[in-house]
Amino acid sequence: SKNSGSITSGQLYSVAHGLSGIPSFVRAVLVCNTSELGFTTNDEIEAVAFNTQGMPYLLGSCGADATNVFFQASLFSALGVTQKASVAGTSSIASAAHWNIKLYWSL
Predict the structure, then answer these.
(1) Is 45 exposed, middle or buried (0-12, 13-18, 19+ CB in 10 A)?
(2) Over the stretch 18-38, which tens digit does the pLDDT of each residue have?
(3) What is the DSSP letter of 75?
(4) Residue 72 in contact with residue 59, Cβ under 8 Å?
(5) pTM given for the model
């Protein structure tokens, strides 16, 4: 796995996977770095659980090729996510500065 820093609108995150073939498993998560919306530091949430606020679009696309695993973030002005606690199940705006993108992969 590789933690690639804060999630940024439109950013391509790419990491050399070092494997002998294209990974059959690739996963992108956002890791909480500042508690909010019931999530605490180091909580990991699938990136597809986030959406672009006010738009019917996912946060981005995750994939791999023969050399790299990657996550292409969409153009977003705000992140929508379902809260974990207090008002669990309510969709709210998350602060992009409170989340880092992290990629996992394996053959």
Answers:
(1) middle
(2) 999 999 999 999 999 999 999
(3) P
(4) no
(5) 0.89
